[in-house]
């Protein structure tokens, strides 16, 4: 399993990748991961280049791509985490199904080693790329070492508890802020073990509470991967209902609060926080709706990948999806080089970020295809697997 869940050497249920059907099913996670990374690159380039679009007269596109509170904000990253959970299952299925304690222990330590490597590397990258998901990915994989053998009902319970805990922390933050208390201590710089735990579990960009819900959902989804074609339509329907339902509740609730309270009324502000679908408010509606959109994205993309397994776009995206650690780090280096060192790109708005992202991805797809042809696994993926086993 690569940092992102790609398992080129192992198939569904722990069997070797032999046969067209298994190969096609494994293309789904890889292609989804590559497309999700495209979205991550767009949001990161836009956010780092232009910041939040907080001016009043924003266009529709600027509202959609707003990196702080737009409807696309963090959804690509959440899909990434969902697929990472699937990768955990693909890696550990053989030991889990066999009940072999030695194999289970080996897989636990493999996940811990790989997670620790990402955690440490993420801390280093955090110095130049604030909010990097690598840091949180390391935490997800270390936690997954404790989760992969659990029964489905326990994974559902843990995922639900993480979502509720995240919403509870968000509610605590809102109420304390309204009471006049400073809450920056929940998003501290990493200067002590206490701050490191706060950053990992409750603060900043992708904390375990509530993001652990996406990982648990991915672990469960990975367990039905061989039979996903039987459930795909149902999962798409469920995902659409979850996503659309949260926005409908948000819209209706905000209309009600506008009619019932003055805009600065404490009750109105509490209701707006409770009903928020914003990614950094981390309310329950956000977690439910984002999980729904991630399910829809995976099911649709995996269906296309399985329907057209030999098509050139599928193969290009699959190769890119198998080396997303290298491409993720490359996008960090590219941005700093092009924007900060050489000053080739300047913050002129969303259009510059989109063009920059498009050019990067054309280059990244070419690099992925060429590297895969001549060298197989990506350069950082080789280091990662050498360390993690």
Overview features:
mainly alpha, about 400 residues, about 0% strand, about 75% helix
- Total strand count, please? 0
Order of helices and strands: HHHHHHHHHHHHHHH
Overall geometry: globular
> Average pLDDT value?
87
Indicate the structural class: mainly alpha
What value does the Rg take, in angstroms? 21 Å
Strand content: under 5%
Low-confidence stretches: 8-21
User: Helical content, roughly?
Assistant: over 70%
Straight-line distance between termini: 9 Å
Major sheet attributes: none
Helix run count:
15
Give the helix/strand layout:
Blueprint: H1 20-50, H2 60-64, H3 75-98, H4 101-126, H5 133-147, H6 152-178, H7 193-201, H8 208-223, H9 228-260, H10 266-274, H11 284-307, H12 312-321, H13 324-341, H14 350-375, H15 379-388
Description:
The chain has one domain. It is globular and about 65 Å long. It has 15 helices and no strands. α6 runs antiparallel to α10 (266-274) and α9 (228-260) runs antiparallel to α11 (284-307). With 389 residues, it is mainly alpha-helical.
In brief:
The protein is mainly α.
